[in-house]
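lol forgot to send this yesterday, sorry. C-alpha cells for the thing we talked abt
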C-alpha cells in the first residue's frame, strides 16, 4: 500500500529534492525557517519574519524532541479540509509542543492517562486519512518519549 506525507513543504528536504518517506523507519524532520535579522524561528516556513519583517528567512530543521506546552481533546470533527475517517470521528489530542525556539501545534498520540503539560515527547507520524485510490496519507505528530530515548 502506498503512503505519502500530507504536505511535503512541512518537512526537511533530503537529497534528490524530496522529504524522507514515512516508511523509511525514522519520521521525516520538520522544517521551519529562521530570520537572519532577529533570529525568530517559525513553523511552518514562511517568506517574511513575523517579528521584524526585515530579515531573510532561511530553512531551519526543528528538533525531534520537545515538551507538551499545552493540550486539549478534540471531541468533535473540525471544519473542512478535515476528512472524517470511514468509521467516523474519534476524539484525539492536539496541543502545542515546545521545541525550544518555537511552539508547534500538533497532533498528540498520547493516551489520556499519560498526557500532561511538560510531558517529554518525540516526533512521529500518524495516519491522517486514506485517499480514494487507497494511498495512506500521514501527518506529523508527537508521541510520549520512551524510557532511554534521551
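and heres what i got for the seq, position by position
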Amino acid at each position: 500500500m502506498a503512503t505519502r506525507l500530507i504536505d511535503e513543504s512541512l518537512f526537511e528536504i533530503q537529497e534528490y529534492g524530496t522529504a524522507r518517506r514515512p516508511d523509511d523507519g525514522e519520521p521525516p524532520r520538520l522544517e521551519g525557517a529562521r530570520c537572519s535579522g532577529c533570529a525568530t524561528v517559525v513553523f511552518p516556513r514562511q517568506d517574511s519574519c513575523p517579528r521584524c519583517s526585515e530579515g531573510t528567512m532561511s530553512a531551519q530543521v526543528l528538533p525531534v524532541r520537545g515538551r507538551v506546552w499545552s493540550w486539549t481533546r478534540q471531541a468533535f470533527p473540525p471544519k473542512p479540509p478535515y476528512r472524517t475517517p470511514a468509521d467516523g470521528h474519534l476524539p484525539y489530542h492536539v496541543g502545542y509542543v515546545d521545541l525550544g525556539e518555537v511552539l508547534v501545534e500538533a497532533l498528540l498520540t498520547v493516551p489520556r492517562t499519560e498526557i500532561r503539560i511538560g510531558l517529554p515527547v518525540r516526533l512521529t507520524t500518524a495516519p491522517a486519512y486514506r485517499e480514494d485510490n487507497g494511498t495512506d496519507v500521514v501527518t506529523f505528530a508527537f508521541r510520549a518519549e520512551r524510557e532511554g530515548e534521551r
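The mean pLDDT is 89. anyway ping me if u want another try
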